[in-house]
Amino acid sequence: MSCNANDIVVLDFETTGLSPLQGDRAIEIGAVRIVDGVAVDRFQSLMNPGFKVSGFISQYTGISNAMLRQAPPCAEVMDGFADFIADSNLLAHNASFDKRFLDAELAHIQRRYRGEFSCSLLVSRRIYPAAPNHQLATLLNYANIAADGDFHRALYDSEMTAKLWLALLQTIGERCGLQQVPFSLVKKLVKVPKKSVADFLAQW
What does pTM read for this prediction? Predict the structure, then answer.
């Protein structure tokens, strides 16, 4: 498990709803493996949850029931994704949502992961406090990162989150005078009150 924040698996789920506790399931996983700040591997698959998704979800994601009927079952996809994660640290935008679904889907197949999660949304609130909001598309525009694909598809969202993450790490590194930003720094940063961020980074 790397101690650097730029060695990480960035992931994103598309789902049937908001909560696995309410019976919602994942319908797509996308992930990008970042090693030393470079995307070196990707994982993407639709997955069949075993029931039809609503018209709202189909419209929101662009994932139809016809597409899902031909997809492998969740268990098969998540078993492969657990192998892909290995012992890497993990990142998502609004990570509490994706972590809930990762935990739930892996619990169905008795698999676990060893890495720790961080959240690009929480970090962005501290590094880009002047952004109009902290949705992924808004932050990419705010940071002048080109985005021309389809949001709400898992691999594209994870790739864009990875680009945002690397921009955030560059800013953190410049403020701290660091070539490599430790994962432990970002884990602490998300707990720092926004008004104290400048002092925290200056003292690191």
Answer: 0.96
